[in-house]
Amino acid sequence: KPIAIFLGAWKESSVIGRTLSYAVRNLNFSNYRFFVGVYPNDPDTLRVVQEISRKDSRIIPCVKNLDGPTTKADNLNTLYAGLLEYEKRYGEFEVILVHDAEDFIHPNSLKLYNFLLGYKGYHAVQIPVIPIKSKLGKLFHRTYCDAFAEVHTKDMIVRQAMGTFIPFAGTGMGFHRRTFNYLEKFNYDLEVSKRKNIGVDDPFSQDYS
Asked: Which stretch of DSSP H or E encloses residue 34?
């Protein structure tokens, strides 16, 4: 199945080239495209991404129309807009993945997403994320690594066995395309509701907006 991979990047010139080069060399899958969200006031990251995209058409830079940094959510919205434009010309993707700019993506992970989302019918999948400890990392970095190790090698496996919900990590997560179609409809319905002055004063609805 065709897979789109979202990578948000702000000041990531030191790692984004390695991430993309490693992926295109090692992924045991061919039907994918990387959409990389970059900012006009981050020329170093933009230059690295554009250089790689000139060598490999599967790398698609999506340049925000405003200077960064913004939020990860805003960057993902830019990537989704780029995806929609791409789909108008080349057809829809079946799976959308979200990764971080510094990830080493497992060579077989796209086959797993393809099977679980494209054939088994799951709406969303979170695969384990294994952090690499840095020699420079101290208290915060090591705490972050320990938390990921606990959740992704223990909690996630137990939660799946119990059939309960599994929280997303913000990276290493995949969605079937229809999930985004649902979110688009939900957002549209919410905006229509607000214009009709229904639920505008409800803080729960405002949080969702």
From this structure: strand 32-38
CA-to-CA distance for 60 and 49, rounded, in angstroms? 8
For residue 33, count other CB atoms closer than 10 A to its CB.
16
**Tokens (6 digits) for 136:** 């420079």
Q: For 73-128, what is each residue's pLDDT tens digit?
A: 999 999 999 999 999 999 999 999 999 999 999 999 999 999 999 999 999 999 99
Neighbouring-strand partners of residue 38: 63
Q: Which residue has the higher pLDDT, 147 or 25?
A: 25
**Preceding peptide of 128 cis, ω within 30°:** no
Q: DSSP secondary-structure letter at 70? A: -
**Amino acid present at 130:** I
Cα(115)–Cα(111) distance, rounded to whole angstroms? 6
